[in-house]
Specification:
Shape: flat
Keywords: Membrane, Transmembrane, Transmembrane helix
Number of helices: 7
Protein name: EpsG family protein
Strand content: under 5%
């Protein structure tokens, strides 16, 4: 973090992080396509019968810890948005970033994907649409909290 704080050229820093993020997203996509086991988010360990101990879905790329990768992907998603919006990068980077975030398999990534429209609505001062998005998020949380939609069903969906 000290290197980020003391760097005088923020553009080089933003571009470096952006390209590292896109590279990791591409690695996650390749690991999803070819089912590379060591890039899984969960289930690196096998039991005696050679089955995964944790068989949940998810591919991280080169970041092996799901907590660190969640933070990395959320920051990378917003960085990609700013790179596309203000630095003139191609929209294909947004698609790569969103697909990379979808295949990571952590629930906090999906929650952060819900907050992207909220971020855009606040930025555009569209309060009605923001209210609708937040109400939808609350309904989803209440359905999950009241066990109308249980954990196993959510895992099957995700």
């Amino acid at each position: 973090m000290y290197a980020f704080y003391t760097c005088t050229n923020k553009k080089i820093l933003a571009n470096t992080f952006f390209y590292l993020f896109i590279f990791n997203c591409l690695a996650a996509i390749v690991s999803f396509i070819f089912d590379i086991e060591w890039m899984r988010t969960y289930g690196h360990i096998r039991d005696i019968n050679d089955n995964f101990i944790d068989s949940r879905f998810g591919f991280n790329g080169f970041i092996l810890e799901q907590n660190i990768s969640t933070f990395f992907y959320v920051a990378g998603l917003y960085c990609t948005y700013f790179q596309v919006k203000y630095a003139g990068k191609s929209y294909i980077y947004i698609l790569i970033a969103i697909f990379g975030c979808l295949i990571i398999g952590t629930k906090s990534i999906f929650l952060s994907l819900l907050f992207i429209p909220a971020f855009l609505f606040i930025k555009q001062n569209n309060i009605k649409l923001l209210f609708f998005t937040l109400a939808l998020a609350v309904v989803v949380v209440l359905l999950a909290g009241a066990n109308i939609v249980d954990y196993d069903t959510l895992n099957e969906i995700l």
